[in-house]
Specification:
The complex is a heterodimer. Chain A is of the alpha/beta class. Chain A folds into 2 domains: about 160 residues, P-loop containing nucleotide triphosphate hydrolases (Rossmann fold, 3-Layer(aba) Sandwich), CATH 3.40.50; about 240 residues, P-loop containing nucleotide triphosphate hydrolases (Rossmann fold). Chain A contains 21 helices and 22 strands. In chain A, helix 3 packs across helix 4 and helix 14 packs across helix 15. Chain A is elongated, with a radius of gyration of 28 Å. Chain A starts with a strand and ends in a 7-residue tail after the last helix. By secondary structure, chain B is mostly helical. The chains are: A alpha/beta, B mainly alpha. The interface between A and B is medium-sized, with 27 and 20 residues.
C-alpha cells in the first residue's frame, strides 16, 4: 500500500487565541494503490491542499495533525524530520499549486528541476542532463529551460513543477491543481503524462477542481466538503451519476462542453469551520435534508456503483417514482406502461409533441386524475395514500397560460394569496411574504401594482405572478407545464432564468413539460421523451442531445435544428 | 374578460331608469300600510265617488278607497314577484351547480326534471292548482317557484360545466382547495350575472302571473291585487270609472313590469358587450 491516510485530522489554530481552531480535515481515511489514481475534488477551502501538504508531512506551523499518513508501510508521524526528508522526493513527490512564489526566483529552472537529483548524490552534469530531458518531455521549448521562473508563462511554470515531481521517479505522486492554469491542449498532454505514470505503477493523488480532468485521469474520485469526505465514487460515474447532492451540485457548476444547461453554483455558502455542527455538515445547503440530518452525523454507506456516500438518505433520494402507469380516456390509450423517476433537486424535462401524453402524465403526478394501472410513489408513499391537501402544499404548478390560470376576479395580491387562503395560513405576516415573493420574481411591490387585475398586466408579468403563487407555500416540487410557450423569446428567456435561479436557490425539484427540446436542453438535467404514450428515451440531457438513440428523438432534434424545408 | 358589474350598471341609463322605477314602486308598496289613507278592506264612503282630496282615486262599487286598494295591491305584486324570483333562483342555483359539480346519475335526474318542467306550461298548472285548491298566497308563491326554476337551473348548470374546466379553477383544485372554497370564490361570482338575469326575469313572470290569475278570479278574492282591481273595474266600465279605477291599476302593473324588463335588458347588455349599441355594434 503506497499511500494511506488513517483517521487524519488537521486543525488550524487561529492566531492570537488559544483553543480556537478551525477544522481543515476531519477523520480522513483513504488508500491509494500502485497504478491507481485517486482524485480529490471540492470547492476551495474544502481542505484539498491541506491533504496534499499532510501527505508530505509539510503542514503549516499553526496546524495540529492527528491520525497518520502511511507511506509504503511507514507511518510518517513517527519519523523525525531528517528521516522524512529522505522519503520526500524519493518515495513521494509533489506538484505544488502553481502560485508565483513556488519556484525559487533566483535559480534557472533547469537547475531547480535538477536539485532533488543532486541532493540525492547524483553528479551535477548528469542531473542537469536529466533535467533538460525532463523539461523537453514536458514540452518546455529548447532554450527556455535556461530561463528564470519569472520569464516563463504560468502554463510553463506548471509544467516545470510537474517536471520537478517526475524527475526523482518516486513511487507516489501528489498533484495539487496541476492543470489549474494551463490551456486545454496542454491539459490533455498533462493528462497523458499522468496516465503514463499510473500505467507504470505509480500511485497518484490528484487534487483538482476540474471535474472533467478528474474523470479523465483518475480511477476514483473523492469528494471533500469542509474537510469531510462526502462521497467517493468511480470517476467514470462522476459526471453522469453522482450520488451525493453536493457532488451533483459541483457537477452542475462545472462547465462541460456538451452540456447546454446554464451553470448553477452550489447554493448557499460553505460553512464556517470554527464549530462543528451536530448534524450533517452539508445540511444547510442540501436539497433533500430531513429532520435526522439536523441531529446526527451521517454514516458512510456503500452505493450500488461501488462507491461510498456519506448521507442519511444514502445519496440523492428519489422524490417521485412512476411505475408502469397506464391511462386511457374511453377508448384512447394515452399512456402505456410509463415508468419514470424524479430525484430530489433534479430538473426533469418531459418532452414530446402535442398529444403525446405529457399533460396527462403531469395530471397523474399531481393526483388530479387517477391512473388505470401502475402506481406513483411520492417519497416512499403511494400517492393515493397521501392526503390531497398535504400533497398540494408540496407541489407548485405553473400553467401554460397565466391569463386563464389566474381568475380575472383576483388582483395580484389576491392571486398570490390564494394558496395561503386555501391552506388557512393567511395571517398578519402574509402580506410581507407576498411582497417577498413578488420581489423574488422581480416584480414591483408597490400598492399600485399589487392591486392590479390580470387584464392590466402583460403576459410576462402575469406569468411571474403565477410563479410567485406557485412558490408562496414553499413547495418541494415545481411543475412547469409549458410555462413559457406562450411568451415571446425575450420574456421566455427571462422567465426561464428566473425559474432556474429559484430552483437552484431553493433546491427544489422540477418537472419541466415542454414540446420544445431546444428549451429542454437549456434547463434540464435529464430529458424524458414521450412518444405515443410511451417514454422512448430517458437519459441525461447532454447524452440525448449528443447521441439520441431513438428514431423519434433524432427526428425531434433534427426538426429543431433544421433551417431548411425539404423539397417536396 | 373582467367586468365590474356595478360600475357598468351605474353607467347604463336604461338600467338606472328601470331600477329607479322599481325602487319607487316597491318602496311605495312596502310603505303601503303607512301611506294608505283608508283601510282598503273597509267601507269608507259612498260608492262610486269621483276623485277628491279625501279619496285620491275615488271609491269603488262598495265604497272602498281605490287609492288605498291600489297601494295594497301593488304590495302583493311586489311581494309575489320578489319571493317567487328569490325561491326559484335559489332552487335553480343549488340544483344547477350541484348537477354540474356532482355529475353522473344525479345530474341526469335533475336534468330530466328540468326537461319535464320545460315541457309543462306553467300557467296552466298554476291555473289548475289555484282553481282546484284555492290555496293561500304563500302556497301559491311556493308552487309557482317550484315550476319555473328550471330555466335558471339549466343556465347555471351549463355555465358551471364550462367554468369547471377553466384553468384557474383547476389550479385552485391543484392547490388543494375544497369544493366549498371553489364554489364560493370561483364559481358563484361568475354565476352572479346569470342569477341576476334569472331573478329579474322570474320576478317579471311572477308579477304578470299573479295579476293574470287574480284577473281571472281564481285567486284568493280577499287579497288586494291589481288583477282583481282590473277585473272589477271592467264590470263598471259603463259608469265611466275607467280613468280612476282601471287606468291606475293597469299603469301600476305596466310600470312594474317595464321597470323589471329595463333592468334585465341592462344586465344583459353589461354581461354581453356584443349587445352594446353605438359604434361598437357595427364592428361586431
Amino acid at each position: 500500500m503506497p499511500l494511506q491516510f488513517k483517521n487524519l485530522n488537521v486543525k488550524y489554530r487561529l492566531s492570537g487565541t488559544e483553543g480556537n481552531t478551525i477544522t481543515a480535515l476531519n477523520n480522513i481515511s483513504l488508500k491509494i494503490n500502485e497504478g491507481e489514481c485517486v482524485s480529490i475534488v471540492g470547492e476551495s477551502g474544502s481542505g484539498k491542499t491541506t491533504l496534499a501538504l499532510a501527505s508530505m508531512k509539510l503542514p503549516s506551523q499553526n496546524a495540529i495533525m492527528t491520525g497518520s499518513v502511511v507511506i509504503n508501510g511507514v507511518n510518517t508521524s513517527e519519523l523525525s524530520s531528517e528521516e522524512m526528508r529522505k522519503i520526500r522526493w524519493n518515495e513521494i513527490s509533489i506538484v505544488f499549486q502553481n502560485y508565483g512564489d513556488v519556484l525559487n526566483p533566483v535559480h534557472k529552472i533547469i537547475n531547480q528541476v535538477a536539485e532533488p537529483l543532486i541532493k540525492n548524490g547524483e553528479s551535477r552534469n548528469a542531473a542537469i542532463d536529466k533535467s533538460g530531458k525532463m523539461l523537453d518531455y514536458m514540452k518546455i521549448k529548447t532554450g527556455r529551460s535556461m530561463l528564470y521562473p519569472h520569464q516563463l508563462s504560468s502554463g510553463e511554470r506548471q509544467r516545470v513543477l510537474m517536471a520537478m515531481a517526475l524527475i526523482t521517479d518516486s513511487g507516489i505522486l501528489v498533484l495539487d491543481e496541476p492543470v489549474a492554469s494551463v490551456d486545454a491542449i496542454t491539459k490533455l498532454y498533462l493528462a497523458e503524462v499522468i496516465k503514463k505514470q499510473i500505467n507504470i505503477g505509480k500511485a497518484v493523488l490528484l487534487i483538482t477542481h476540474d471535474l472533467s480532468f478528474a474523470a479523465l485521469c483518475s480511477d476514483y474520485t473523492v469528494v471533500l466538503y469542509s474537510g469531510n469526505i462526502l462521497e467517493s465514487l468511480p470517476s467514470k460515474e462522476l459526471l453522469d451519476a453522482p450520488h451525493h447532492p453536493y457532488t451533483r451540485a459541483l457537477v452542475r457548476s462545472f462547465p462541460v462542453m456538451e452540456r447546454a444547461k446554464d451553470l448553477a453554483g452550489v447554493r448557499g455558502a460553505p460553512p464556517q469551520q470554527t464549530s462543528t455542527p451536530k448534524g450533517c455538515i452539508f445540511q444547510p445547503r442540501c436539497t433533500q435534508s430531513i429532520d435526522v440530518c439536523l441531529e446526527r452525523r451521517p454514516q458512510a454507506a456503500s452505493t450500488n456503483g461501488g462507491g461510498v456516500v456519506v448521507c442519511h438518505r444514502c445519496g440523492i433520494a428519489t422524490m417521485i417514482s412512476v411505475e408502469n402507469i397506464s391511462k386511457s380516456y374511453k377508448d384512447i390509450e394515452v399512456l402505456k406502461d410509463v415508468s419514470l423517476k424524479l430525484d430530489e433537486g433534479e430538473i426533469l424535462a418531459l418532452v414530446g409533441e402535442t398529444g403525446s401524453g405529457k399533460t396527462t402524465l403531469t395530471y397523474l403526478i399531481t393526483g388530479t386524475i387517477k391512473p388505470d394501472g401502475g402506481k406513483i410513489i411520492f417519497r416512499g408513499k403511494g400517492l393515493d395514500k397521501i392526503n390531497r391537501k398535504e400533497f398540494a402544499k408540496m407541489v407548485g404548478i405553473v400553467y401554460q397560460s397565466p391569463r386563464d390560470s389566474i381568475s380575472h376576479r383576483f388582483n395580484v395580491f389576491e392571486a398570490i394569496a390564494e394558496p395561503l387562503v386555501i391552506h388557512k395560513v393567511f395571517d398578519g405576516k402574509s402580506a410581507g411574504k407576498i411582497r417577498n415573493a413578488l420581489r423574488e420574481v422581480q416584480l414591483p411591490v408597490d400598492d399600485y401594482f399589487i392591486r392590479k387585475y390580470p387584464h392590466e398586466l402583460s403576459g410576462g408579468e402575469l406569468q411571474r405572478v403565477a410563479i410567485a403563487r406557485a412558490l408562496i407555500l414553499e413547495p418541494d416540487l415545481i411543475i412547469a407545464d409549458e410555462s413559457t410557450s406562450f411568451l415571446d423569446p425575450s420574456v421566455q428567456a427571462k422567465i426561464l432564468r428566473l425559474l432556474l435561479n429559484l430552483q437552484n436557490e431553493r433546491g427544489i425539484s422540477m418537472i419541466f413539460v415542454t414540446h420544445d427540446i431546444g428549451v429542454a436542453r437549456k434547463v434540464s438535467d435529464r430529458i424524458a421523451v414521450l412518444h405515443d404514450g410511451r417514454i422512448v428515451e430517458n437519459t441525461p440531457t447532454h447524452h440525448i442531445i449528443e447521441n439520441p438513440q431513438h428514431e423519434y428523438t433524432k427526428k425531434l432534434i433534427d426538426a429543431v435544428k433544421s433551417s431548411k424545408i425539404s423539397d417536396l | 374578460m373582467h367586468i365590474r358589474p356595478f360600475r357598468e350598471f351605474k353607467r347604463n341609463r336604461i338600467g338606472v331608469t328601470g331600477l329607479v322605477m322599481f325602487l319607487l314602486l316597491s318602496t311605495t308598496a312596502i310603505l303601503a300600510p303607512l301611506i294608505a289613507p283608508h283601510d282598503p278592506w273597509d267601507y269608507s264612503d259612498r260608492s262610486f265617488q269621483p276623485p277628491s282630496m279625501n279619496h285620491l282615486l275615488g271609491t269603488n262599487d262598495i265604497g272602498y278607497d281605490i287609492f288605498s286598494e291600489l297601494l295594497w295591491a301593488l304590495r302583493t305584486s311586489v311581494f309575489f314577484g320578489v319571493s317567487v324570483a328569490a325561491i326559484a333562483c335559489t332552487i335553480g342555483l343549488i340544483l344547477g351547480v350541484s348537477a354540474a359539480l356532482v355529475g353522473g346519475l344525479y345530474d341526469l335526474v335533475v336534468m330530466r326534471i328540468v326537461d319535464a318542467l320545460l315541457a309543462i306550461p306553467s300557467i296552466l298548472v298554476l291555473i289548475l292548482i289555484a282553481a282546484y285548491f284555492r290555496p293561500s298566497t304563500m302556497i301559491l308563491v311556493v308552487t309557482l317557484s317550484l315550476i319555473i326554476w328550471q330555466t335558471i337551473a339549466r343556465g347555471v348548470r351549463a355555465q358551471t360545466l364550462s367554468l369547471k374546466t377553466k384553468p384557474h379553477i383547476k389550479a385552485a383544485r391543484n392547490m388543494g382547495a375544497s369544493t366549498v372554497y371553489i364554489m364560493r370564490k370561483h364559481i358563484l361570482p361568475e354565476l352572479f350575472p346569470l342569477c341576476a338575469m334569472g331573478f329579474v326575469t322570474k320576478a317579471r313572470i311572477a308579477v304578470f302571473m299573479e295579476a293574470g290569475l287574480s284577473f281571472l278570479g281564481i285567486f284568493d278574492p280577499t287579497t288586494k291585487s291589481l288583477g282583481i282591481m282590473m277585473s272589477y273595474a271592467m264590470r263598471y266600465l259603463y259608469l265611466d270609472v275607467w280613468f280612476n279605477w282601471l287606468l291606475p291599476a293597469v299603469l301600476s302593473l305596466s310600470m312594474l313590469i317595464v321597470s323589471l324588463a329595463l333592468i334585465s335588458y341592462a344586465i344583459e347588455e353589461i354581461f354581453d358587450p356584443r349587445l352594446k349599441g353605438g359604434n361598437n355594434a357595427a364592428t361586431v
